[in-house]
Design goal:
The chain is mostly helical and 159 residues long. It has one domain (4-144). 79% of the residues lie in helices and 0% in strands. The two termini are 25 Å apart.
Amino acid sequence: MHHHGRAIVYASGLWGAAIAAFELSRNLWLSLFFLAVAGGGDMVSGIFRQLMWNQTIPDELRGRMAGTELLSYSLGPQLGQVRSSLVAQWTSLRTSITSGGLVCVAGAVVLALALPSLWTYDERTDVNASREREVRARAAKDAATGGSAAAGGQDTNTG
C-alpha cells in the first residue's frame, strides 16, 4: 500500500460506518463484529497517520508537531464526547451513536476532497520529495552559517 492518504480516508470511513452499523444492529454477535471492524479501521488509520508523520515531518519540526499531535489526541475525544452527549440529550443515545458514525464517514469524504494532497499522497514519490526538500534546507542552512563544522559544532546531520 503506497497511497497512505487513501488508506487513512478509507480506514476512517470504515470506522464511522462500522460504528453506525453497530448501533443499527440488534444482534449481539453482529454488534460485536461491527465493534471489531471499527477497532480495525481505527488501528489502520493510526498506522498510516504515523507513517506519513514519520516520513514527511523534518527533524527540526518534530517537537512542535508532536505537541500539536498530543493536543489533538487529548482534545479530539473530549470534543467528540461533548458532541455525543449533546445529541443524545436532544434526541436519543441511538441517534447520537449512529449520527456520530455517519458524520465521521462524511468528514472523511470532505477531508479527502478538501485536501487533495492527502488523497494523492504516495510514499514512493512524496517521501523522496520531502527528503530532497529537507536536504536542500539543511544545505542552505549550512551554507548560511559557513557549514556546521565551521560554525563551531559537530555535524549532527544523520540523514
